[in-house]
Each structure stands twice: as structure tokens, then as C-alpha cells.
Design goal:
CATH superfamily of the domain at 59-199 and 285-291: Elongation factor Ts, dimerisation domain
Distance between the termini: 42 Å
Strand content: 15-25%
Structural class: alpha+beta
Radius of gyration: 23 Å
Largest sheet: 4 strands, antiparallel
Number of strands: 7
CATH topology of the domain at 59-199 and 285-291: Tetrahydropterin Synthase, Chain A
Shape: flat
CATH architecture of the domain at 59-199 and 285-291: 2-Layer Sandwich
């Protein structure tokens, strides 16, 4: 039997916003499986989480570079935000980002590349920096984005320096229209992506298992509503399908999201409107969004306990 610890209950509460007892019941009912427990809470209407969010806790910086039709993004982590503000660390992240396009999204290849102006590899130089600064750090991930004809536009949120910040976005726009206006519109779309955090560009890009999972949750929620008592499964399924398309697709699919720079039209409509100024059809072919520390957890620190322990040791 799986032991349901207080830390596990707290983790579920942080991810769903549900009450402690509800989180404990969800974990107990589902053998401690976090993902199944999240769905269990949602089916009972006890959680508003549409997807696993996770608490972002890692420090460091996201570096972004883009040149015409190709761009790359890289995340380099540090232990503290103090080091992330260190000019030496920032220069290192910027230099590593410049090498990222050639690595094609392969972290190992990026680490093996020769660091600019040095005879050492990126991996070796990072180790030198660890010794110099006195704090652990590492290249966590990287990815590239490319388009045939068009542009790859970028945007940095919570900017810490040129090409550096807490959230980095690249978006690829395919078009033969005015390059300058295409870049301008692309940067606006990248800003939207930073704020709205879509999963995919189009509905067709959503994995079938993801859609099926959301559909099942909407059906269970419909069954639990008193006003639906006695209604057939077929009717409930049709009603749930409407919610799936309006709510989930509207949240997860980029072209169906409400464009944050407008607040009314969808991103898809904004693309059509932008085509008039750009002078040619525009197609969003892909995007990358890196938020610093996604999926990572920093160990919790109890400052009072640390002080007490230090006093006892002295």
C-alpha cells in the first residue's frame, strides 16, 4: 500500500488548489498516482486545473537567438537568482545560446561544442564557471525552430539582458510577404504565446490521448450535475463535446485562443487581418516557449531550522 505523505498531499494541493482533505482522499483512492489524482479531483469538480502546471522554482536564465529563418532557445540553471544576475553568468548563457542553432536541439551536441574564444567545450567551460562562481549550474535543455520561407520571431519576458530572461519564445511564420512587417507581427504573436501558453498551433496537433482524457473529464462533470439527472449518455456526450471545443480547444490551441493584444478576436483571425499589411498569406508553422524551471522543484528551505542547527553545531 502506497504511503500518502504530507509532502505528496501538499504537492497535489499546489497543483490543483483543492483542499487538503480532498487531496489526501484523491491520492488515497488512486494509490498515490499524482496524474490520476488530479483527474479524480477535476471529475468531482474539486479542482479548476485544466492541466498539470507544476510549481516553477529553479533559478537561472533562458537564452534566445533568432536569425531570419532559424532560431534557438536554451535554458541554463543556477542555484540562486543572485548568480542569474551575475554578468559572467549572463555572458555565458548568451554565448551558449549563440551555439544552440547548430546543435539542432541536442543538449549533448551543444555541451560538446567548442565554447567561443576558448579551447574548452561548453561542458568544460560550465565546470570552470562552477569553480569560479562557487555555485552549481548546468545546461538543462535546448531546442531549435526553422521555417523555409518566412521568419522566426522571438520575444523575451522578464528580460534580464539582451536575449536573456525568464520566459523565451520563438514562433515560425511561413510567408512570402513583407519580411519587416512579418517580423513585427511575429513578435506580437510571440508575446501572446508567452502570456497564454498554448499547447499546440492547431487542433490537429493535439494528441488523441490528450483529447480523450479531457473529453472523459467533461462527461464525468456533466453526469455529476443535478440538472443532468436522467439524461442519456448520448446527450451528455454531445453537450460535453461542445464544452471540449469551446473551453479546452480555446485554451490549448494557439489559433483558437483569444488574442491577448486584442482581447476579442482569435489568434487565427489576427493572422488573417495581418495578411493585409504583410501582403501575402501567413501560416504559423510552430513555436517554442521556455519558462525558466518548468517541471523542476527547488527543495524547500526552513531558514529558522537552519539557524537553529547552525547554533547547535557551534
Amino acid at each position: 500500500m502506497t504511503t500518502i505523505t504530507a509532502a505528496l498531499v501538499k504537492e497535489l494541493r499546489d497543483k490543483t488548489g483543492a483542499g487538503m482533505m480532498d487531496c489526501k482522499a484523491a491520492l488515497t483512492e488512486n494509490g498515490g498516482d499524482m496524474e490520476v489524482a488530479i483527474d479524480w479531483l477535476r471529475k468531482k469538480g474539486l479542482s479548476k486545473a485544466a492541466k498539470k502546471s507544476g510549481r516553477i522554482a529553479a533559478e537561472g536564465l533562458v537564452g534566445v537567438v533568432s536569425t531570419a529563418t532559424k532560431g534557438a532557445v536554451v535554458e541554463v540553471n543556477s542555484e540562486t537568482d543572485f548568480v542569474a544576475r551575475n554578468p559572467q553568468f549572463q555572458d555565458m548563457v548568451r554565448d551558449i545560446a549563440k551555439l544552440a542553432p547548430a546543435a539542432g536541439g541536442d543538449v549533448e551536441k551543444l555541451l560538446a561544442a567548442t565554447y567561443p574564444g576558448k579551447s574548452a567545450t561548453v561542458e568544460a567551460y560550465v565546470k570552470e564557471m562552477i569553480a569560479t562562481i562557487g555555485e552549481n549550474m548546468g545546461v538543462r535543455r535546448t531546442a531549435t525552430l526553422e521555417v523555409g520561407k518566412g521568419v522566426v520571431a522571438d520575444y523575451i519576458h522578464n528580460k534580464a539582458g539582451e536575449g536573456l530572461g525568464k520566459i523565451g519564445v520563438l514562433v515560425a511564420l511561413e510567408s512570402t510577404g513583407d519580411a519587416g512587417k512579418l517580423v513585427e507581427f511575429g513578435r506580437q504573436v510571440a508575446m501572446h504565446i508567452a502570456a497564454a501558453n498554448p499547447m499546440v498551433v492547431n487542433v490537429e496537433d493535439l494528441p488523441k490521448d490528450v483529447i480523450d482524457r479531457e473529453r472523459a473529464i467533461y462527461v464525468e462533470q456533466a453526469k455529476a450535475e443535478p440538472r443532468n439527472a436522467g439524461k442519456s449518455d448520448e446527450i451528455l456526450a454531445k453537450a460535453s463535446e461542445g464544452r471540449l471545443r469551446k473551453e479546452f480547444f480555446g485554451q490549448a490551441v494557439l489559433v483558437q485562443q483569444v488574442y491577448v493584444l486584442d482581447g476579442k478576436a482569435s489568434v487565427g483571425d489576427a493572422v488573417k487581418e495581418a495578411e493585409k499589411a504583410i501582403g501575402a498569406p501567413v501560416k504559423i508553422t510552430g513555436f517554442l516557449r521556455y519558462a525558466l524551471g518548468e517541471g523542476l522543484e527547488r527543495k524547500e528551505e526552513n531558514f529558522a531550522a537552519e539557524v537553529a542547527a547552525a547554533v547547535q553545531q557551534s
